[in-house]
Amino acid sequence: MINTHITEDTPRRLRAVKKPSTEGYNLRYAWVTVFSVLVVVIISDLFSHGHHGGVFWESIPLFFLACGVLSCLILILAAKLFGLLWGRSEDDDE
Amino acid sequence: MNNMPPPGFVFIIGALFVPLLKGKLRGAYMVSLPVLCFVILIFTPEGSYWPIELFGFDLVLLSVDELSAAFGYIFIIITFIGVLFALRSQDTLQHSSALLYAGGALGVTFAGDLLSLYIFWELLAVASTFLILARKTVRSQQAAYRYILVHIFGGLCLLGGIVLQIQSAGDTTLELIGLSSTAGYLIFAGVALNAAIPPLHPWLKDAYPEATVTGAVFLCALTTKSAVYVMARTFPGVEQLVWLGAFMTAFPLIYGVLEDDVRRVLAYLLINQVGFMICGIGLGTPLALNGAVAHAFCDILYIGLLFMVAGSVLYMTGKRRFSELGGLYRRMPLTCIFCIVGAASVSGLPLLNDFVSKSIILGAFSHENMPVVWLVLAFSSAGAVLVGGLKVPFYLFFGRDAKLETSDPPAHMLAAMGLAALLCFGIGIFPQILYAILPHSVHFTPYTASHLVHELQLIAAATIVFLGLIRFGWFPLGKGKVYLDVDWFYRVGGAGFYRFMDRGLNALNRFSDEVFARRLPVTLGRWSKMPVRMLLMTWNNLTGRLPSWWKAPTGEADPEATNLIPMGVAVLMSLAILLSLVSVFVLQV
Lengths: 94, 589
Prior knowledge:
The complex is a heterodimer. By secondary structure, chain A is mainly alpha-helical. Chain A has helices at 12-15, 23-47, 63-86, 90-93, and one strand at residues 87-89. By secondary structure, chain B is mostly helical. Chain B is 71% helix and 3% strand. Chain B has helices spanning 7-17, 23-42, 66-85, 92-110, 114-133, 138-169, 182-195, 202-207, 215-234, 239-258, 262-283, 286-317, 333-346, 353-367, 371-397, 411-429, 431-435, 449-471, 488-529, 531-543, 567-588, and strands spanning 47-54, 57-64, 481-483. Chain B has a two-stranded antiparallel ribbon with strand order 1-2. In chain B, strand 1 (47-54) and strand 2 (57-64) form a beta hairpin. In chain B, helix 3 runs parallel beside helix 12 (286-317). Chain B is elongated, with a radius of gyration of 33 Å. The relative contact order of chain B is 0.07. The chains are: A mainly alpha, B mainly alpha. At the A-B interface, helix 2, helix 3, strand 1 and helix 4 of A face helix 10, helix 12, helix 14, helix 15 and helix 18 of B. Strand 1 of chain A pairs antiparallel with strand 3 (481-483) of chain B.
């Protein structure tokens, strides 16, 4: 398939970029969505008492939220460290 | 009583006729094969059929039970989807290889004995190599070469284990083996290699990104899952698998965060998801085994869907890196929607299939009170959201607009992705469909209030971290970099070892050649030809002067040069040297 950037000759059908999709533009909606979901989830978790899991911390309110944030931060830090230790330029890999 | 042929044979024999057909007829023929296979499997009752005798051993080519049927169904479904995705490809070698590969996977699944398992196992390895080679690039050829070498090694381990197992057990029955003997360990090594259990996993992230656009769809579904099936059949309840699986879920995510190559990220995600299955098999309870099988079933659909999305982007844009892509949602809207479905599914979003299957595995560990493993699996679930659920769709379809001129892929590719997405939703909304084919009866309700809230918390947490990282530009995407993990040992370490041995051995060879083949014979020749002169020259070299009585003869007057020196002098010199050596020896003693 053709692989070129948009030029003057690009058909109108394919241009379709009235408003460039910058990162900030996309992220605004994502932030609003995730915070809306978060509010609903936090309220639901604080008022629900129906879980009987085998691991005690499953019943701690907002445990999964904290666990998720911590897990992702650990993962990112580990990735940064591994990147420093093991990353090599693609030319060296040839 | 069963009159149906083994489903794998439909693909294997069917593959032979693919090169004879062309155009729409070939397309219709290829699509009809999985349909025929599916019908055959539905009408095949449980039991063992097609016994044959080979080299004095009894082979059973078709053995159907709940476990094999569950894997058989999903292998046929993904073959149908894969064939649909590859419908317009003109590469008959690729089509035939894909069908042979699927036939091998079904052969492994329905093998009733160890020997037929091995035969189909090798067919699987060989046929899949062509799906990498068919890309016809230097990188794909190198990757295919490494791929087949690794799988030959794995196959040899399996064969060695099977031979020992047959020797000790006396028959070829495929049953629970366990890790209690050398045979068990060898079979385990062979199967673990195909399941990509670390540290035997690098072949997967090395080869799958280099496969053809359509070949990767088959690859991501069949090799690892047929190994998961064999694990579930031969090593259920082996505790080591729990820990290996837990490590397997967490470790690849680190590289998944870093990688810039879209399909390599998916390969790491695939290893992460297989880790959940291995954990479930290791736990070995009926609920955990159900979870492992259910997760294999669901994983094939959503990982296949994500590989199809990545393949479509590669096919339409020619780009394979996140750093070269972005902002495609306006130009590939349908592909973007399918990507979001796959990403949401791998994240475990409610109403999608992974929510059901992963819940069963986590539920099993929660019931067995294994808190450490449970924590690792929760960590990995959050990581899978970050890598598969957020990074992949964001960098492909949103984020920085790469302004690439493209559009959605052809209709048959969209149809294949649409079907996979539909099945992801179907199983997520109606999990009873999945429960009906699991090996044990299921008493598990995924849609409880607390479970929904917990899962949404994990997803929301990962999303907040991801958005924060993107907002501040801290997401560690390794642009133009390669990250070696365990393959460092055979790619860098192996190359270093080769260079070291090459230089070391060549240096030794040069030294030996110089000393023993060139200088020593010449020197010895001179000593035997002109012993007096050589002795005097040595004396001169040592003391810096010649005896006063010596007058160097020149030209024809030189008795040594003209061979006039008596033989006795040479003998005398030899005796003198010999005596001096003996004296040195005696003095040392």
